[in-house]
Design a protein that fits this description.
Helix content: under 10%
Shape: globular
Radius of gyration: 14 Å
Structural class: little secondary structure
Mean pLDDT: 78
Strand order of the largest sheet: 1-2
Largest sheet: 2 strands, antiparallel
Number of helices: 0
Order of helices and strands: EE
Length: 70
């Protein structure tokens, strides 16, 4: 079976965490996100990653030395 174009590919780090990850919104992917902008690293348990840089969805990708693929 071929993949559909609706498949979401993400390059965010597996350790990127936000409180929105704990919401159960069900199967409706069109539900709006709250967008608090509050993120932390599950390795360091704070707002700085192991590399000493700030944790954020737009920054925690393959360009970071501490990045690990989902």
């Amino acid at each position: 079976m071929a993949e559909t174009s609706s498949t979401l590919v993400t390059q965010r780090c597996r350790f990127l965490t936000s409180k929105e990850m704990f919401y159960d919104i069900g199967p409706d992917a069109s539900a709006p996100q709250s967008g608090s902008g509050l993120f932390w690293c599950s390795q360091t348990k704070n707002c700085l990653g192991p590399d000493g840089s700030a944790v954020h969805a737009k920054d925690c990708g393959p360009n970071r030395s501490c990045y690990q693929e989902l």
